TrEMBL record:
It holds the Pfam family Kinesin. This is Kinesin-like protein. Its main location: cytoplasm. Residues 705-733, 753-787 are annotated as: Disordered. GO terms for biological process: microtubule-based movement. It comes from Pan paniscus (Pygmy chimpanzee). GO terms for cellular component: microtubule.
Amino acid sequence: MVKQTIQIFARVKPPVRKHQQGIYSIDEDEKLIPSLEIILPRDLADGFVNNKRESYKFKFQRIFDQDANQETIFENIAKPVAGSVLAGYNGTIFAYGQTGSGKTFTITGGAERYSDRGIIPRTLSYIFEQLQKDSSKIYTTHISYLEIYNECGYDLLDPRHEASSLEDLPKVTILEDPDQNIHLKNLTLHLATTEEEALNLLFLGDTNRMIAETPMNQASTRSHCIFTIHLSSKEPGSATVRHAKLHLVDLAGSERVAKTGVGGHLLTEAKYINLSLHYLEQVIIALSEKHRSHIPYRNSMMTSVLRDSLGGNCMTTMIATLSLEKRNLDESISTCRFAQRVALIKNEAVLNEEIDPRLVIKRLQKEIQELKDELAMVTGEQRTEALTEAELLQLEKLITSFLEDQDPESRLEVGADMRKVHHCFHHLKKLLNDKKILENNTVSSESKDQDCQEPLKEEEYRKLRDILKQRDNEINILVNMLKKEKKKAQEALHLAGMDRREFRHSQSPPFRLGNPEEGQRMRLSSAPSQAQDFSILGKRSSLLHKKIGMREEMSLGRQEAFEIFKRDHADSVTIDDNKQILKQRFSEAKALGESINEARSKIGHLKEEITQRHIQQVALGISENMAVPLMPDQQEEKLRSQLEEEKRRYKTMFTRLKALKVEIEHLQLLMDKAKVKLQKEFEVWWAEEATNLQVNSPAVNSLDHTKPFLQTSDSQHERSQLLSNKSSGGWEVQDQGTGRFYVCDVNARKILPSPCPSPHSQKQSSTSTPLEDSIPKTPVSSIPLTGDSQTDSDIIAFIKARQSILQKQCLGSN
Ligand code: ADP
Ligand code: MG
């Protein structure tokens, strides 16, 4: 058992704006416990909390300042926890802090760069690397991903569901057994045999989470996400299994309802926005008070799920994420205070070992059979009916293979049936007699042959003896040679086995590199897991395809609008950047793959050459009647050192390719996710545009859809025509395709139909009331939106009009 208080770490996020000096300081004297001091500026301290104290000091295990990178965080915080999970203890890492302080960045990672990947992907990488190294145990890894929003649990990994809102995901409920163990009903566990499979699951869950989020639920700030790695291990042949769970938790934003600063003791009274965080605090308070017997775990789903992590059988670590900007100081102080309380909680982690009943049953069944056999022998209870033909045949087969088996330890197992035992003896006797007769026959015929010949002459006899001696020598040489060859062949086989194994891990990159642009995937997983790999990939790509591939089902107008939206979107820069990096990595991997292939065939050739050389040497020795030279010749030495060199080169390239593979996989997943996000935001924007259009359309107002405010124009030279320049930065435009007039608010990425759709409005518009005032306030929800091709073409016309205006503006300003 390991007793340990919850470890607390702090991480300070780099500020969005330039660093505001003097707000905090970190004291990291090696002999003392590191402390973080938050200094309140005078203007804030005035009327602030706790009798206007101006500075607050908090102790942490370690404090990571703004410049700490993801690698440092992983190495110092997550790696030790992952290590104890590998040893069989439960572990939890949770990030706590206000929205925007870097919880998701720390736990999952940033959405842009590969180097920004967070604790989850790095931990997966580390765990799978360690599992591969340890061949003394059989490991199984499962992944689950749970989201808790509003006291409801949702399974983010359910493959059967296409989540477009949280409610579409399967609901997870809590069950408690008589021993008060918590079980989660409906939370699926997914087997992951490789790092990639586990990574795919992480991205699948994250994508589901993103898609399910709506402006109404704001799940990313108000929900808790628990990514769990379930690891079980057992030694071969043993019935004892160890189970360990690692929860990686991204909590909801810890901001409170009332912003302090109004004075007094508001800070302590302020309630969390998220009720379950309030319950978490209650649990923490109860645990940190010494003589409390009742801990209110059951108050919320999150505290129930994390029950073991808080004051139970678990090694737990908390990361307090801090955004130490002036306006966030009160929240940062709350976060630190919470951490100080958490640090008082003692956990007791034990090894979770259990006996696997299935394995025990198997072992017992075998034992029972053996005992039955023994009993039958001892009691002499024997069967009397004759053995069938088939049984006899089977027995004879057994005897033959027993006799052929070179292993001196081999046994003839026929069970405790005396009929069979007797038959075996009979059969063996028969075989032995047959052999004797045969030998007698040969010997007697040979002796007969000799008898009829004259006795050998002395000289002939000597000659024959010499020849015999010579042959003996040759045989000895050949036996030696064979032994050496056999040894080498075994080594070669062993090496080839290793190569094959390594290659199976690397598998296709050198051979099947796809062009990232064509959407092909570089699959580098190990062969046995490939089928599953593809199924997971299929799972992911079907989801992503559905999300990204929606474009293919879009009307042409919508597609065009999507292209424009994409071009203007900030994320497209990231996507493009990642595409470039991906391209680079792909070509690097391709080149590397080719070099690896070359190195491999070179290794093959060198081995072949060495073998040939060796055979030549031995043959030479035989022909010259010499023993095999003890010293290998120089040429062979040279070949061997070349072989070693080539193998080293191969290994270096192989390691690099492996790293590249992980990076490529990660980048592809990042891009997939970014694309889904883009698509989602486009849909929202599109719906908004459609709503605006319909809200303002006189056709809607007059309820007369057949008579739109058409203005046919004769001019076909230009599709859109600039009519006036509104002082507000908006423009009125007539679209020649539909003949409609639009007001384009260039700044707000909004295009609204003109309230006065007449060409004569030119004059009016300059004096007209502000645009917003003239928009009828129709409730948005009451307007039908999608699937209306009229709406589609309207919007596309808007966008085109807007484009043309922007172009004209650009030309004007140049
Ligand atoms: P939270 O999950 O706590 O609401 P996020 O992790 O989403 O906050 O972080 C908010 C923003 O700040 C994101 O854009 C993220 O990339 C960025 N960010 C957070 N922490 C860091 C950091 N340590 N280094 C760089 N960027 C960060
Ligand atoms: Mg977050």
